[in-house]
Design goal:
about 260 residues; alpha/beta; eight-stranded mixed beta sheet; 7 helices; about 30% helix; about 25% strand
Length: about 260
């Protein structure tokens, strides 16, 4: 199926988000999915762009996953959260939630999109944001979470966490944040064990690798326990690690689930 891809910019309360939309050819409107990347593991290369590819990642880019979705009949949106890629701003957890809300509002207005069939796929921190936002945005028809943390656990001080974010390049401005403690508190405000139950009655797929050494598989079980299990499915992937895009099987399962769920 032929696909048309368009570079896009979206305003998120004064911060410019950069991304792209891939749309299947043919008569729409089409079901759609918004893809939410996770936290960068390293400072990006100078040529990093909306492909959202990490410098040493040998897996698929999000652009390739979006194109795969579009070939299967889904309009697919990728974007860089604030503080990453070509998007502006500085990373903070609730800022990422605000970004996804802005993207969803933008998608809602696109004539190519069936507003009753908009799904969200998130990986790691992007999955946590997806669950948090979907709990309060009824236009999200389905959620697929890969390796979402359930709660925040850390042994470092807020100041050390902020410094790490500076080193990775997702906090760019020297005067941000005004308070390291308030910045860190946003993680606690995004406790998705408190919000995941409100995704129902919409379907939710929790995918997690049983060899994930970044986010414990226990987090997936905690989210399942806190969810409405009549519409939630947990899928543990044997031998799979934390990186969604590096796992061809996980990507294939995810795209198939989205196509089936949003096309029903």
């Amino acid at each position: 199926m032929p696909v048309t891809t368009e570079r896009i910019t979206i305003d998120s309360d004064g911060i410019e988000l950069v991304g792209a939309i891939s749309v299947p050819d043919g008569k729409g409107p089409h079901p759609a999915v918004v893809l939410c990347h996770g936290m960068p593991a390293a400072r990006p290369t100078p040529t990093a762009d909306i492909t959202l590819s990490a410098p040493t990642d040998d897996g698929l880019t999000y652009a390739e996953i979006a194109e795969l979705c579009a070939h299967r009949g889904l309009a697919a949106v990728i974007f860089n959260f604030r503080g990453t890629g070509e998007s502006g701003g500085n990373f903070h957890p609730l800022g990422w939630a605000q970004d996804l809300e802005a993207v969803l509002s933008w998608v809602w207005e696109r004539s190519e999109v069936d507003i009753d069939r908009i799904g969200v796929l998130g990986s790691s921190m992007g999955a946590r944001v997806a669950i948090h936002v979907a709990a309060r945005r009824p236009e999200v028809a389905a959620v697929l979470s890969f390796a979402s943390p359930a709660r925040s656990r850390w042994s470092r001080s807020p100041e050390e966490m902020v410094q790490n974010a500076r080193e990775v390049g997702i906090i760019r401005d020297p005067d941000f944040p005004p308070s390291a403690q308030r910045w860190a508190d946003e993680y606690q405000e995004m406790d998705v064990t408190q919000s995941v139950g409100r995704v129902a009655p919409r379907p939710l797929l929790l995918m997690h690798g049983d060899a994930d050494d970044v986010v414990s598989p226990d987090d997936a079980h905690a989210l399942l326990e806190a969810s409405d299990q009549s519409v939630t499915e947990l899928m543990m992937l044997p031998g799979a690690g934390h990186r969604f895009r590096s796992n061809v099987e996980a990507v294939d399962i995810a795209v198939n689930w989205l196509v089936k769920t949003l096309s029903a």
